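subagent[fold] <- orchestrator: predict structure for attached chain, return tokens only, no commentary.
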Amino acid sequence: MLALGGQAVIEGVMIKSPRYVTVAVRKGKSIKVKSTRFRSLAERNRIFGWPIIRGFAVFVEMLGAGFKALNYSAEQAGEGKRMNRNETLIATAIAVIMGLFLFVWLPYGLTSLMGLSERDSPLAFNLFDGIIKLAIFIIYIYLISLMDDVKRIFAYHGAEHKTVHCYEAGKKLTVTNVKRFSPIHLRCGTSFVLTVILISVALFSLIPFAVKAIWPGVYGLSTLPRLGSMLLIRMIALMPIIAVSYEVLRASSKAQDSILTRTISYPGRLIQKLTTREPDNSQIEVAIASVNEALRREGVSS
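subagent[fold] -> orchestrator:
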């Protein structure tokens, strides 16, 4: 059985199979489907397939594939012209900077303003930092979920999960069969983001001890250079955090029914209740079209 991932796009669903990225978009009464050959970083260089390293590689691949899929879906849905390579890179850079601001710089700054010291109380500092990150994440998801366009994207998100569930259960991909499955999926990107936040609390708590050993003079710097240095260290530390989070979700997906997995995945599954909605039949049809085309391209029968 193939490992399928994906995401919801504007009026559609993107499915990433081992060798292809397939996007299906609803266009009136028809469904427009596009499949592009995908060559992973691990396929180009085996080092990117190694444990830990592969996590960050997959993250970068999904980020790139996701932006291209959103760009294509926006064009098909009539919401704008297709972005060129430079525009896509700029949009990606803006998204990354916004993510860093919301989930690294802002929580760190607010925690510092509370009077907590990362040097003297690393555990308390990073616990509050993590709580602020989680609050920002939940509030952001809740606020955008109130928008009509986003409600439809979240419904396509649910359709994607249901259809992948149906395929993984070995059932024929029909609307009736797909509707029986849950819109919550263990390997969802929402769960991934939450896992990153939780693991960052633990790893960031160790940073002050490492910094004291490697660069003890950093705490003697004036306020702005010191804060800037610590934020830069955190940004660099995001790479191993993303990698470890991927390995956690990967291991969990192989033992989905275990008590440990269900306990670890519970917060992520809970958050998915905000990021997924029950799809209608037409949205399920789009998700089925995307999965079917991905399987056809891979030479697998559905």
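orchestrator: received. Logging for downstream: The first strand starts at residue 5 and ends at 9. The chain has a mean pLDDT of 89.
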